[in-house]
């Protein structure tokens, strides 16, 4: 599914084609029509440099998401996701050099067509990024969230990329943002008003005994582990006083 289809579906859900009482009834007290997408990004004056700096990290970002949410077995502080990533791509005969040489397709063309093979995203020259962003703009996407810190991407390359993006890519879209935002607000206002009108006006009442308990506390209480409960209480006291518990530091550092 493409970004444009997501926007169309979102608008359809709020519109008259939906059956009242089902998916088009807002859960909360407001409706946010903003649509955001996530994409890898690395910008450089030369396409070869942008690819060399950002492509591997982009692929690792996609792999790590799938590791945690689809197929991976993970032992905290033990599993080497990066090493697993390298081994698996090696088994597939993947060559970073060949990948760089073969990734000179028009930036954004695959994404716009719904092709999800590989994760190049917004990796390229300022001119390529402008074209890439125009596709999302035309599809009705309001925001793009850039992933630049994946894998072994270097800090100096990220900072150079942000500076280049801010001076050579962003200004074009800033110029159009106010008018585009006003036009979208006017278009979606009646849809949102109609959707909110279908909502039950009786606000939900929070159960008097409801408690949102931190996950570690839930686990400790489920085990009825008194020493662990005492440690959590002690940790809370120390955190309030600005004292970092050494055991907590050790756990956090892995």
Tag the structure with descriptive keywords.
254 residues, 3-stranded parallel β-sheet, extended, mainly alpha
Computed structural class:
mainly alpha
Q: How much strand content do the residues show?
A: 5-15%
**Number of distinct helices:** 11
Distance between the termini: 39 Å
Rounded average pLDDT: 82
* H/E series: HEHHHHEHEHHHHH
Helix content: 55-70%
Record the SSE blueprint.
Blueprint (H helix, E strand, L loop, with lengths): L2 H12 L21 E8 L3 H25 L9 H11 L4 H6 L7 H4 L9 E3 L1 H14 L3 E5 L7 H14 L1 H28 L17 H9 L2 H15 L5 H8 L1
Parallel strand pairs: 1-2, 1-3
Fold and architecture overview:
The chain has 254 residues and is mainly α. It has 2 domains: 23-197, no CATH class; 215-253, no CATH class. 57% of the residues lie in helices and 6% in strands. It has 11 helices and 3 strands; from the N terminus they run αβααααβαβααααα. The chain has helices spanning 3-14, 47-71, 81-91, 96-101, 109-112, 126-139, 155-168, 170-197, 215-223, 226-240, 246-253, and strands at 36-43, 122-124, 143-147. Strands 2-1-3 form a 3-stranded parallel sheet, sandwiched between helices. It starts with a helix and ends with a helix. Residues 105-117 have low confidence and may be disordered.
């Amino acid at each position: 599914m493409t970004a444009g289809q997501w926007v169309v579906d979102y608008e359809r859900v709020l519109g008259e084609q939906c059956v009242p009482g089902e998916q088009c009834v807002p859960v909360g007290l407001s409706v946010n029509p903003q649509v955001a997408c996530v994409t890898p990004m690395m910008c450089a004056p030369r396409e070869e440099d942008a690819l060399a700096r950002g492509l591997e990290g982009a692929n690792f970002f996609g792999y790590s998401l799938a590791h945690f949410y689809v197929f991976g077995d993970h032992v905290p502080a033990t599993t080497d996701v990066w090493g697993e990533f390298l081994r698996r791509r090696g088994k597939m005969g993947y060559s970073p050099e060949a990948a760089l040489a073969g990734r000179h397709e028009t930036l954004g063309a695959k994404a716009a067509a719904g092709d999800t093979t590989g994760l190049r995203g917004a990796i390229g020259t300022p001119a390529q990024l402008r074209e890439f962003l125009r596709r999302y703009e035309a599809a009705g996407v309001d925001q793009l969230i850039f992933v630049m810190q994946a894998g072994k991407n270097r800090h100096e390359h990220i900072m150079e990329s942000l500076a280049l993006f801010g001076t050579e890519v962003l200004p074009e879209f800033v110029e159009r943002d106010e008018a585009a935002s006003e036009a979208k607000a006017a278009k979606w206002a009646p849809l949102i008003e109609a959707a909110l009108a279908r909502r039950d006006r009786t606000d939900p009442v929070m159960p008097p005994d409801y408690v949102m308990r931190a996950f570690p506390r839930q686990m400790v209480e489920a085990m009825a582990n008194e020493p662990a409960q005492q440690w959590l209480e002690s940790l809370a006291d120390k955190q309030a006083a600005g004292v970092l518990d050494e055991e907590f530091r050790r756990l956090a550092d892995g």
